[in-house]
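tool_call: predict_structure(chain=1)
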Amino acid sequence: MPTFHSFLSRFSPRTLGLVAAAITVLIWTSFILIARASADPARGGLLTPLDIAFCRIVGASMVLLPWGAYLVRQDRARGVMDASWLGLSPLPARTTISVGFFGGLLYALLAYSGFAYAPALHASVLLPGSLPLWTALLALRLLGDRITPLRALGLGLIVLGDLLVGGLSLLRAFDGGQVWLGDVLFMAGAMCWATYSVLARHHGLDAVQATIAITTFAFVTFVPTYTLLVLTGVLPGQVFNAPWGSLLFQAAFQGWGSVVISGITFTQMIRHFGPVRSTMITALVPGLSALGSVWLLGEPLRWNLATGLALVTAGILFGVRASAPSAMQLKAVNAD
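tool_result:
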């Protein structure tokens, strides 16, 4: 909306990038703790992981779908008729479907399902921790980014940290454990979000428009399908039987906070810092969410988790340092 963009224009791009990074880190940290507390069957929650995904998508859609329809009407009033999808997404159909599939639908389904099997400490390492790894590899393939020796060292540390957490869980699968399922889902979810972030940079997407687009796709494809499957008894969802308080809380935090606010701030971060540096800036998330997991959720910090967390955090910090020279060189080129 004009008032939104005019408000943002008062601040420098650097200020917007830094504020967006701080908000993203705060919400992502809270997301891990709240999602585990909500999806963990042992904590007695009524909602299933797919119920939480449903609340996330519906909550975000309450804000973003009307916003998207407004932007589409503005475009059509200017004679732009083919740059929107279904009258709701301000982006073309192909772009909406590609970014929406990875960033709007698949990420939510994979991440929330992972919290039903693995503790938040595992998510602290594997969700934000493996994000720079997937993003660097995808940016190398799709954007032509280089992986410098220092960044390669950082990515190697991330791989070691992920193996310490996920690898030991996989070994315990032979004893009947299911934590490894959550670890695999977390890694797959991180890959989906990395794909979205690289696609957003590749297409040069506006932060608001991209967030509206991924929510529109998730709403159109998931909400009617899940509603039908639950009402017919095919899936054991509780979203239509749970207390209104639980549903409103999930819609508010998972939808308005995790999607609307952090979706916009994360994409704004991508526009200013680039996809690789943006994911590296989230280095605080693993440590903060791990501390919260121990303090608030009472999860034990075993040696492999502590070591994996340290390796992943160090790897992200190496990546930040490796990205700094390229950023300076870019500024020098722009100045010339």
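agent: The chain has one domain: 13-335. Proceeding to next step.
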